[in-house]
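Write out this protein's structure.
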Amino acid sequence: MTRRFGTLALLALSSSLAFAQATEVSGATGQKFELPAAVANDSALEAKTALVAAQLRCPVCQGLSIQDSPSELSQQMRNLVKEQLASGKSPEQVKAYFVSKYGEWILLEPKARGFNLLIYVLPVMLVLGGIGAIVFAVRRWTAPPAALESASGTEGRGS
């Protein structure tokens, strides 16, 4: 989840910087001049490409995104992402293309449905179970000894 927020923050920062650079840049002499729109669009395209590439798994490295992987295949995949985004496809359409080619495995964050739902629910259930076990153990350890003896004594006498 933090990776997603980090990439979103990176996208927002780079987009705002690209906009600021595109509108006007001060030279060393203090004169202002405008950058071409193509440069601003290229920066925004690079930021979108980085955002989408950070969400796709490298088939070679398997533990890295295609954004972080140094493999040749991941570089080709990044270029394909960039081409598709430049042609007007949305990030969701680009991810859907890769899912159709490689399966849902290619996504670093699988969608929370079906069997993948366990990935999201199981850790929460384990933490809640652990907290419950700790509370139970603490209550037993802090219970007065007389209460424990009388509870075990009444069970033994009935037999």
